[in-house]
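User: I'll paste a sequence; please echo it back and then give the predicted structure.

Assistant: Echoing your sequence first, then the prediction.
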Amino acid sequence: MRAQFAILPDGRRHFHDGPIDLILQAWGDDVAAAYAAAASRFATILDELCRELPRLRSAGGPPPQGVVARRMTEAVAPFAQMRFLTPMAAVAGAVAQEILAAMTEAAALERAYVNNGGDIALHLCPDAALTLGMVARPDRPSLFGKARITGRDKVRGVATSGWRGRSLSLGVADAVTVLARTAPQADAAATLIANAVDLPGHPAITRAPARARDPQSDLGPRLVTLAVGPLSEAEIETALDGGEREARQWRARGLIEAAALSLNGRIRLVGADASHYTFERPALSEPLHAQG
């Protein structure tokens, strides 16, 4: 068996298969059934995606066949009307959403999450809540804030993107964390907002064609960020301005609920509703159920 499954010391589950690396946790009735259903579905998901990779790496084409592939395509569709985006921009969120769906179909859960490398699908009953820690720099993990999501919120997906993460980015954001109604939708939006935190042509930013870094990248000849040198305070603010405009546009269209943008220690918040969820620094002793 290629897929690997483990129980972490704190009881969370760790699923791994090729490029997919999940952390998941559930609370409620018959949690064991939920984990078993998640494992069964996880064992099939990578092969399904690989069969349709050429279509998923393209900005257009016939509707894909697989459940996850269709979810990816549907998630990027409203964004792709205005920006270049392929279904791959939503792959991590869509995988998390699919595994969460398997869990909630198998058991009555009070709350649950599936974290796919920072792209997180959430399940919350009306009176439940989860606190998620937000990382400013994936290469040097440290929390700059938290988002508390309750069952009253519309948010059921969280995603993080930036040039320091595991995916290629066109921008210079250290991290952009987005809250949206679904995980694949948050994933697609985080990609675009992180791309928009940018300083085109800046001499301190090293870029290269995406295909030079990954011959199979859906970004092809587009220049992706490899390194970011010293930036002035004014330049940091200019870059964050671009990301904030992008985030506000998608929020106005109802595609995201909120976003937190991080660059060189500066944080920009868009749409945080303190009555439901807030972006704020967590207490050192505060437990965090999921980190993204």
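The two ends are 28 Å apart (CA to CA). Residues 284-292 have pLDDT under 50 and may be disordered.
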